Amino acid sequence: MKRLFPILLMMLAIASCTGKGRKAENAPEPEPEPLPLEGFYTSHYKADTTQVRNGDSFTGLFNRLGLSAQDAYTLANLCGETFDVRRLIAGNRVIAYYTPDTLRTLQYVVYTQNRIRSTVFQCTDSLAIWNVDKPVTHERKYADVTITSSLWNDMKAAGASPALIMNLDDIYQWSINFFSLQKGDRFRFIYDQTVCEGEVIGIDSVFYSVFNGGGKEMAAVRYHKPGEKRAGYWGKDGESLKKMFLKAPLKYSRISSRFSYHRRHPVTGKVKAHTAVDYAAPTGTPIQAIGDGVITKIGWDGSGGGNRIRIKHAQGYESCYMHLSRFAKGLKTGSRVSQGDVIGYVGATGTATGPHLDFRIWLNGKPLDPLSLNSPATEPLEKQYMEEFGALRETYQNLMDSLARDYVPANIQVDTTEEFSIAFPENEN
Question: What is the CATH number of the domain that holds 266?
Fold first, then answer.
């Protein structure tokens, strides 16, 4: 019996090992670790995050990260059309991945181009480069915004991206002065937006918009006329929203002084006519020509206007822009400018208490209030396009009515203490 006991123990051990082997053979294979978007297993390396510095060259950056000068030069030559080595942007994020050992050998570099695209540089023996894009979605949206404090705040309160302000300004720049919006004015619009990782990163297009204000309703229909390179916006009856003059010569500012024949000058204290509108804006804000024309005066205005440009337009109109910090390059007396051309930049030259634009308009020598100017219209949509246009407008209106029935504003709480204007806060633009 004593001899049999060791034999039994041996048999049990063999059976146990055999059972474990069979169990291992029948066990499911573990799931492989999913490959990250970057194209390599980032968790296998030690990551250091830095930024592109002012003055960094491509090879200089990679030398600093630990790549040899020869390999950095070779990698730069491999970039080709995949990445423009001259387009490194100071401040953009760079993540360098190193071996986790004490040698810390550089393996990969990921450069963030923008909120969607990054470029991956493989820095091992087999140098390589490729771009990766985060997945994006395009969403059809509807928004209903009523002005209560400022267009910026009210846009956010309605759950819409304030980036829409730029689109609306492009659409209505000839017909609505965004500096004189009133409480109760209302915008409704259908648009597409691009979303990445839950964040709105851009507005694709506004297809249909309706503005109610000052006792009138103004629709804007996006319509791509056959043969044209770009789509335009037209009123509900096919009238062009594009006019002879822009409603304002600069964007995202505020009115600091209005047209008046009895205004006390803030510097001299004298009461005199101020046949202009003053737009307060930071020094360097671009100023646009409100319409096509020819420059008749450019230079210093000795009566207090500082750097000044005066433009002659068709049909007896003239416009004037004063207190500029500087002029756009290449302009001189006799230069022709087109509507929307940047002609100069806001400043405080001449008699001025701070940076602003003094903007004036005359018709046949008589001063006009720029905020009340009724700009001549351009040609309406041609008759041969009206049937297609009318069907498109009706489709958009029906869609707006449908979306409006289910629309629930976000009611996001925002700060409403800022001055009534459409200025972008500096940290959000």
Answer: 2.70.70.10
Residue at 145 is within a domain: yes
Q: Are 306 and 344 in contact (CB under 8 A)?
A: no
What gap in Å lies between CA 356 and CA 340, rounded to an integer? Answer: 19
Residue 368 and residue 319 share a domain: yes
Same domain, 129 and 148: no
- Same domain for 198 and 215, yes or no, is yes
Q: Is residue 275 part of a domain?
A: yes
Using DSSP, state whether 86 is helix, strand or coil. helix
Per-residue model confidence (pLDDT) at position 420 = 33
Question: End of a domain among 90, 116, 133?
Answer: 133
State the amino acid at position 62 in one-letter form.
Answer: F
Domain boundary among 133, 163, 180: 133
Q: What are the distances in angstroms from CA 86 to CA 55, 79, 89, 90, 400?
A: 11, 11, 9, 12, 46
Strand boundaries in 105-259, DSSP class E: 106-112, 117-122, 128-133, 136-146, 186-196, 199-213, 216-223, 232-234, 254-257
| CATH classification of the domain holding 209 | 3.10.450.350
Task: Give the CA diameter of the chain.
Answer: 130
CA 157/CA 423 separation, integer angstroms: 16
**Residue 181 structural domain:** 137-243+389-405
The DSSP secondary-structure symbol of 33 reads P
153 and 231 belong to one structural domain: yes
- pLDDT band of residue 227 (cuts 50, 70, 90) is confident
Domain count, the chain: 3
Cβ contacts of 64-72, under 8 Å, gap ≥ 24: 65/94, 65/96, 65/106, 65/109, 66/96, 66/98, 66/104, 66/105, 66/106, 67/106, 67/123, 71/123, 71/127
Give the pair of three-digit tokens for residue 190.
């259908």
Work out the number of other CB atoms within 10 angstroms of the CB of residue 203. Answer: 19
Q: What is the pLDDT of residues 276-315, one digit of tens each?
A: 899 999 999 999 999 999 999 999 998 889 999 999 999 8
* Identity of the amino acid at 44: H
Task: Read off the pLDDT of residues 72-118 as tens digits, 9 standing for 90 and up.
Answer: 999 999 999 999 999 899 999 999 999 999 999 999 999 999 999 99
Output helix, strand, coil percentages for the chain, rounded to the nearest 5: 20, 35, 45
